[in-house]
Specification:
heterodimer, A: about 300 residues, alpha/beta, 10 helices, 13 strands, membrane (chain B), Cu-processing system permease protein (chain B), transmembrane helix (chain B), ABC-type transporter activity (chain B)
């Protein structure tokens, strides 16, 4: 099966300034990929290249097997920009109808999408009266017009309440199951962690890492955190345990080398604890690790 | 073609929604009827005078109004979309920049053309109904030429507006530039030409000066409307130079069309080069 998006040593220059350096990764059909990076890492430029808004300076970039500038390719791409804006004078329905005409989508789908994002009742209100969350939901409906094969969402949960956020994630899963490939750019890493199949971390215009979470964890070698309750005061010793700290309510946390985590878990179970949790490095841990490794971001997110 | 129509449709319905079309049509109608009946009031004459005099007065009025209205209608066509956050989204659709600009041009052009037809056309109807013994054939030909040329003049300035809108980074800058363009072509150009004429004291070839009128679409427009009437171009400031211009009406129309083509081409180029 050919990749939906394929970047091979893609470079991008703005004048003398190089913003992307030899970026290579691919997105397969039905995959959800998280594109992460600090501000200025090159995410937006990458997305703009994929959308065909700018042309790459070097390397090879294929979207749905062709060039992103091609109208037939664009027909199959849905995009939800960060802080999506629409024409304030139009109603939600008119907005979606306008974009549906441009996409060649049916008016029946307009009604269906308005219902899907919960805006049927507000569809005849002008967009200027919409809250941020409503605008975001309208933006999502707009991105889904024409049943795109590739959906790109930049910070899609901004302005959404927790229930709307969860339904967005569920919708993402549904679309994936139907074969849609999704690229999601987000800083809300815990939210997307369990939904993505693959993560790409960028820093300072370079690709730091690309792969699924298991690959990222293996590559990073960060300790696994074992949380255990009911073993206070008992001796726990294993050469793979890097640290042991006491938490509240009788919980303790052990930082364990990933290759020996099962061995340590076995040892702990023998001591019959009241509870035990295994916490592999989270997406946020991995993001911080790779970004800091690249020397790109300080504590306050300021580029060093 | 479908995409161009879709954009044109949106622009046209925006024009209806925000009452641009209604306002322009009413303005044109009131001014046109007023000029037709009270245009010669300064010379103590009230009531309809003649078709040439009415068209000459209307053309002078439209020379000021059409460029201004066209520039106001479209100065934010591109920069406004960018400031509003919709330009990037539009450009991710199967829609080229050229289609987007052409669609806007068609939509705005329809607003301008229909308003001109309704506004000035109502004056023609009023004259036909209320003035006895008026030559209907002369009235129709004069007004058809006047309405078509006014629309064409408006289209040229719409194209100017797209150039400015494609190059400006902020709406306010585009608005300022639009006023500058209006000021240059409608007010400054003729004054500058007259100044050159006076200051040069005959040093500039007299054959050259009438051709300089072709550098201003507003002057070409006036020439089109004054041509065909007896002594039409006489005694009207810089327009008096037109008598020496060895060009027919068709050539003048072509000149205005060339202006439109060149400026619209420039607008497409400017929009294509715009980063966004």
């Amino acid at each position: 099966m050919s990749a939906v998006v394929e970047l091979n040593k893609v470079c991008q220059h703005y004048g003398k300034f190089q913003v992307l350096h030899d970026i290579s990764w691919n997105l397969q059909p039905g995959e959800i990929m998280g594109l992460f990076g600090h501000n200025g890492a090159g995410k937006t430029t990458t997305v703009r290249l994929i959308l065909g808004l700018i042309r790459h300076s070097g390397g090879e970039l294929k979207v749905l097997g062709g060039q992103a500038q091609d109208a037939k390719i664009r027909q199959q791409i849905g995009f939800l920009p960060e802080n999506v804006m629409f024409y304030p004078q139009l109603t939600g329905l008119e907005t979606l109808q306008h974009f549906a005409r441009l996409k060649g989508a049916s008016m029946a789908q307009v009604e269906q999408l308005l219902e899907q994002v919960g805006l049927t009742a507000a569809s005849r209100q002008r967009v200027k009266a919409y809250s941020k969350g409503m605008r975001q939901r309208l933006g999502l409906a707009q991105a889904l017009l024409g049943n795109p094969k590739l959906l790109i969402m930049d910070e899609p949960t901004v302005g959404l309440d927790p229930i709307a956020t969860q339904s967005l994630y569920r919708l993402m899963e549904k679309l994936r199951n139907e074969g849609t490939s999704i690229i999601i750019c987000s800083h809300v890493l815990p939210g997307v962690e369990s939904y993505i199949d693959k993560a790409v971390v960028m820093a300072r215009g370079h690709l730091e890492v690309a792969g699924n979470l298991y690959e990222l964890r293996e590559h990073a070698g960060l300790p696994v955190r074992l949380r255990v309750r009911g073993l206070a005061g008992r001796e726990i010793s294993h050469p793979a345990i890097d640290s042991r700290s006491t938490l509240h309510d009788g919980w303790e946390e052990l930082a364990v080398r990933p290759d020996a985590r099962l061995e340590v878990v076995g040892q702990l179970l023998q001591q019959q604890p009241l509870d035990l949790e295994v916490r592999p490095p989270s997406l946020e841990d991995l993001y911080c690790y790779y970004t800091e490794k690249a020397g790109a971001v300080g504590v306050a997110g300021v580029q060093q | 073609m479908r995409q161009i129509f879709n954009i044109a449709r949106k622009e046209f319905s925006d024009g209806l929604r925000n009452r641009w079309m209604l306002a322009i049509s009413l303005l044109f109608a009131v001014l046109a009827v007023g000029i037709a009946w009270f245009g010669a009031a300064a010379s103590g004459q009230v009531g309809f005078t003649s078709i040439p005099a009415t068209i000459a007065s209307l053309a002078s009025l439209a020379t000021f109004l059409m460029p201004l209205i066209a520039l106001l209608l479209a100065y934010d066509a591109i920069v406004g979309e960018e400031e509003g956050g919709t330009l990037m989204l539009l450009l991710t659709y199967p829609l080229s920049r050229s289609q987007l600009l052409t669609g806007k041009f068609l939509g705005h052009g329809m607003i301008l053309g229909l308003s001109t037809l309704l506004g000035f056309g109502s004056a023609a109807v009023a004259i036909a109904v209320l003035v006895p013994d008026v030559s209907i054939s002369l009235l129709v030909s004069a007004f058809v030429r006047f309405i078509l040329s006014s629309t064409l003049l408006g289209l040229v300035f719409l194209a100017f507006a797209y150039v400015l809108s494609s190059r400006a980074t902020e709406k306010s800058t585009a608005a300022g530039l639009a006023l500058g363009v209006w000021f240059l072509f409608v007010l400054v150009f003729d004054l500058a030409l007259l100044t050159i004429l006076v200051v040069s004291e005959g040093k500039i070839s007299p054959e050259l000066l009438p051709w300089l009128l072709l550098l201003n679409p507003a002057d070409i427009y006036r020439l089109i409307n004054l041509a065909g009437f007896e002594a039409g171009a006489q005694g009207l400031g810089v327009m008096s130079l037109a008598g020496d211009l060895p060009m027919g009406l068709t050539a003048l129309w072509l000149c205005l069309l060339v202006w439109l083509g060149v400026i619209l081409g420039w607008a497409h180029l400017a929009f294509a080069k715009r980063v966004g």
